[in-house]
Amino acid sequence: MGSSIFLQSNSLLESLIHLSNEVSSIEKLPSIQVRNVSTMLRRIKVLTSLFEEIQESNNPMLPPSSVLCLSELFSVIRRVKSTMEGCKNGSSLWGLIQTERLSNQFHVFVKEIARALDIFPLSLLTVTVDIKEQIELLHRQAKRVELYVDPKEIQTRDVLLTLMASEKNMFDVETVKHVFNSVGLKTVLDYEEEMSKLEDEVHKQAGTGGLIVVSNINKLISLVSYAKSMVFNEESEENDVRQVSGSVGKSTSASFNVPDEFRCPISLDLMKDPVIVASGHTYDRSSIAQWINTGHYTCPKSGQRLIHMALIPNYALKSLVHQWCQENNIPLMECSSNAESEKPTAEFVVGKLAMGSVDIQRQAAYELRLLAKTGMDNRRIIAEAGAIPFLVTMLSSNDPRTQENAVTALLNLSIFDNNKILIMAAGAIKNIVDVLESGKTMEARENAAAAIFSLSMIDDFKVAIAAHSQAIPALVALLREGTTTGKRDAAMALCNLALYNANKLKTVAAGAVPLLIELLMDDKAGITDDALGVLALLLSCPQGLEAIKKSRPLVPLLIDLLRFGSAKGKENSITLLLGLCKDGGEEVARRLLINPRSIPSLQSLATDGSPKARRKANALLRLLNRCCSQSHNPIG
């Protein structure tokens, strides 16, 4: 019982310790990203020592900034776990090809840990000198860590790409075995599982990776299949399959008893919205809010007087509760929260934003960024506390982190619709576009694009945003220069803005069309569906139609997307082909008729596509039939 009480009162730390131990105890580490994984595990073990020491100190009061930091570390470590599991459970060969992207992902995680530790009040907590020195060292190293891409993985990746480009019977089997062994593929079962994982990857990439990515994965599947037939004989294959079928274990029965640490100490019911009070104890929001609203200003468990009434969301515990409910098929209804008690925290942070030094403002902007990350109530009360005008001003800061935190906080706040109006009323669009165009970090530029996408959800703002002369050109520039996430945010913002006819011409004039077509052919861009969506919108603009017609590679690309694209990609591909064939598009129609893949693809879509795709496929088939009947036999 004492152990249960201890868990309950330290649920945030307990959640972090539990998650960190899960990461640290991952069995059979992935055979790719070995150094990045091992160094990340060392960092997490150091952080775990900090979490355990804070928990063991039984400090009844955790400063609000430490709770924010710990919540952010929980978020980062959870994403680290997901990435490590992806490396371990996903396709090893595809992971090898993606080695630079995965390395960059681990680098981003380390930088996020450094930023969280920037606001961690280590001096206010009771920890030993040894742990303090370890955390300070980790913090310093994380701030100056450089991207590490394993040269051996790059070398092996290059050999693999050469094998993929080779004809069958033209490569050395021993070379294949060496490459496959390096990523843990040694038995026929390993080869079978790898092909299954690659097939899963094809479905994941259909709407984002583009044709080149899907084609490369299919080449990998062919290579693994051929290599399996060359390396293993049928007898060993059958033995491995029998071994697998005999190793299937029985599923364990789930227990539906609510764990004590998930129960509210007041109601003893499952906590739907756990929050932390000033004493460090966690309660369900509705129960503790009712306790406070009836005039009680002490912690129900400890009897300690609460020095403030702020209820800080325990995101870590909430995530574990939701995960437990999903695993046990228990529906969990979101409860409405009494957000009024969050106002003191928001007002305190906004006060630091208004009157603090540059360092304090940077920290306050980061705290607001985290607070606004989850929960509509948080977004509302932060705006009510007057944060938006200060954040808009901070967009012009010369400090890269302050600018980045400010634009990201505004992005998070804009998810609440009423805040969109307040942000626009504060004159934010000029500053946001300035950050988009020439922000001091790429993350700031990309989050500015995401903010424009969010604000443009309101129709009236589509006009106001595009009225800024640099808004659309800056989005097109980010489409060219950004990361995959930035390109997607820019494309989605352009798609929103292009719903307004006057903005279509501006988008075409900014050079979006050839760039979007180029991105369709870029296997690293990862925005196939988004690029197709913007092109389909620009098709209805005469200038857009003319620009699209100028692209020779587009038609065969669209034909292939009819076969290999996602459902949405197929819809937009058929929309583009139909639009190009109408109104004097005889040349495009002839090119479709010449291509042997076009008619079967259209007939398949007319039978099995979505209602919209079927309708347009049939319309295009009729158009091609008329064109064909003028000179040849009609399409059968």
TrEMBL record:
Q: One GO molecular function term?
A: ubiquitin protein ligase activity
PROSITE patterns cross-referenced by the UniProt entry:
ARM_REPEAT, U_BOX
Under catalytic activity, the entry for this protein gives: S-ubiquitinyl-[E2 ubiquitin-conjugating enzyme]-L-cysteine + [acceptor protein]-L-lysine = [E2 ubiquitin-conjugating enzyme]-L-cysteine + N(6)-ubiquitinyl-[acceptor protein]-L-lysine
| Keywords on record | Repeat, Transferase, Ubl conjugation pathway
Looking up InterPro entries in the UniProt record yields: Adaptor_Cbl_N_dom_sf, ARM-like, ARM-type_fold, ARM_PUB, Armadillo, MLKL-like_MCAfunc, PUB12-19-like_N, RING-Ubox_PUB
Q: Where is the U-box domain?
A: 257-331
E.C. number(s) listed in UniProt: 2.3.2.27
Read off the Pfam families from this record: ARM_PUB (PF25598), PUB10_N (PF25368), U-box (PF04564)
> Which pathway does this chain act in?
Protein modification; protein ubiquitination
Positions annotated as ARM repeat: 386-428, 470-512
Q: Tell me the Gene Ontology biological-process terms attached to this UniProt entry.
A: cell surface receptor signaling pathway; protein ubiquitination
Q: What is this protein called?
A: RING-type E3 ubiquitin transferase
From the broadest rank down, the organism's phylogenetic lineage runs: Eukaryota, Viridiplantae, Streptophyta, Embryophyta, Tracheophyta
